[in-house]
Amino acid sequence: MSTTAQTPASIGPAPWRPQFLSHLSKMDSPEFVFTSLSPDDSKDSPTPYVPRARYCIYRGMWGELPENKHNDAPMNDRVYESDMPTLTTDVRMHKVPEIFASSQGHGDVSQSQGSGGGGPVEAVFWVKEVMTQWRIRGDAYIVGPDIEGSGDESSGSRTVKSKVGERMRVVKEDNKDNWSWQKELTAHFGNLSPGMRGSFKNPAPGTPVSLPPSDPSLGLGQKVTDLEDEVARRNFRLIIIKPNQVEQVDLTEPDKARRWLFTYVGPDGGAGQGGAADVGEWKSEELWP
Q1: DSSP 8-state code for residue 203
Q2: Which of 56, 185, 200, 216 has its CA 20 to 30 A from that of 241?
Q3: Shortest CA distance to 131 belongs to which of 273, 253, 49, 276?
Q4: What percent of the chain has pLDDT over 90?
Q5: Long-range Cβ contacts of 265-270 (<8 Å, 24+ apart)
């Protein structure tokens, strides 16, 4: 794996992970609200950024692609696991440049065509089946077609591999050196249905219907079976959320509601304060709901 940082295998999963994944398994469709920050250029705006929210589909934890018997893409061995949720998107969607523009480097639209990002985001899951809300706050990183390949590595690709790589846990030493970011990206594309893959050949999202696309390859209702379809893969992106805080609110018994806050403190941990307890790389604290 080409990355500048790796998390040792001895560091275990986040304390919130088992129950979070158990809850998601009870959902018919793991939908959640994904919120990013959009630059507001209006001179009348009191803040430089405004929130933008939309529903998305959870696509598994990074490095742990859900099994799909219909996916013919080459697969990496399961040598890594992580606590970083993923979702897919189209590079032409607003969320992509928003993630770049709100990052520490304040990337521009041209940079958002490749890998990179790092802007702050929030993901909120309401699991009605167990009456529990999960709120994940963190930074989002985008994996694009430039994540691996010939030539010089882009600064965005280096950023993704460094920032994401430091939260990837080794669970199997065998074949670790053959693990590929590009193969993982293609496998995520293959895990989508042909119709969903075809959506990446839609006319540019958000553009007026009165202006038909000049590219004849773009159109609604297409199905893509070629995992290397040039147009669809050019627009396909994977977003990885690197959590800093995770909040769980249990409303199973409304008159006895409970709430917990998990904060990432790093491999060295931190001294628990005010009733907080360190669990591995995370600080856990129960709050009033």
Answers
A1: S
A2: 200
A3: 253
A4: 81
A5: 267/7, 267/8, 267/11
What pLDDT, in 10s, does the model give residues 45-67?
A: 899 999 999 999 999 999 999 99
Q: Is the sign of the CA dihedral 226, 85, 36, 4 positive or negative?
A: negative
Residues whose CB falls within 8 Å of the CB of residue 152, separated by 6 or more in sequence, listed in order:
none
Residue 231: other Cβ atoms inside 10 A: 15
Query: Residue 74: exposed, middle, or buried by beta-carbon count in 10 A (0-12, 13-18, 19+)?
Result: exposed
Residues 99-133 have pLDDT tens digits of 999 998 766 677 899 999 999 999 999 999 999 99
Percent of the chain past pLDDT 70, that is, above it, reads 93
CA distance 145 to 164: 16
In 3D, which of 82, 90, 52 has the Cα closest to residue 203?
90
DSSP string, 219-263: -TT-----TT-HHHHHHEEEEEEEEEEEEEEE-SSGGG-EEEEEE
DSSP reduced 3-state for 129? helix
pTM above 0.90, yes or no: yes
Rounded Cα distance, 243 and 8, in Å: 18
The amino acid at 1: M
